[in-house]
Input
Amino acid sequence: MQKHNFISIVNISIFAHESSNTAIFRSNSVMAKIIIIESSTEVCSVAIANNGKIIGFKEELKGQNHAKLLTVFIQELLHELRIETSEIDAVAVSQGPGSYTGLRIGVSIAKGICYANKIPIIALSTLEAMTREVIRNQDIFFPASARKRLFCPMMDARRMEVYTQLFDNQGYATNEISAQVITNDSFSSELSEHSIVFFGNGAMKCKDTIKHKSAFFTSEIHASAAQMCDLANEKYTKKIFEDVAYFEPFYLKDFIATVPKNNVLGK
Output
């Protein structure tokens, strides 16, 4: 079998560390096997969860290889874990915003599995999933003196634009998801009253623009299926499902096709 540059983890428990200063995300767990697909960024990531815990995980961090790797990762995990597709209870997939191509591929694969096996599809927010990871480990990212805290995931949307949303210390969104062009004044109002940690693949490019003593940045957090287990299990337990036939990714912005420079010049 062809080898890939991925991280493979079996029988691990995600989010074991819980900060005493955080809300703990819990729901009444049910016995369910869920395939989790994350394809909203350059990261290609698949996990399988059973009863609210990750039992298998594969991830490729480099390049847009979703079309090539997502189905391979799913097949390899099912084989390694000796799970038949018929045993899967649901598929959870990143709904966006993010990469148009990555989201389209991930959702198409998820819908195909769900349709063929007559199982539900679960839509997950990558921004919320990343935020939960940071909240659980927030003392790593904030100084002890930071009391009023906000969490700001950022997904790269080219140039100085990001897809973003703010969350409070309990994991609740304080505003709507938006596409923002980052300037020196971005988040100035919030930073005057709160400490904010910025994370995700769009955060570090903003570090030299958002200069404030209460702004903190980390490059340690990226979109990953491994972060989505709790959220997927919660939605499965509450039966928050999408319509398999009509579900579409949340692109936030319309796709704009670019023409290669050589074609513009007629070469």
About this structure: Confidence is low (pLDDT under 50) at residues 1-28, 255-261, 263-267. The helical segments are 66-81, 100-117, 126-136, 138-141, 188-191, 229-237, 261-264.
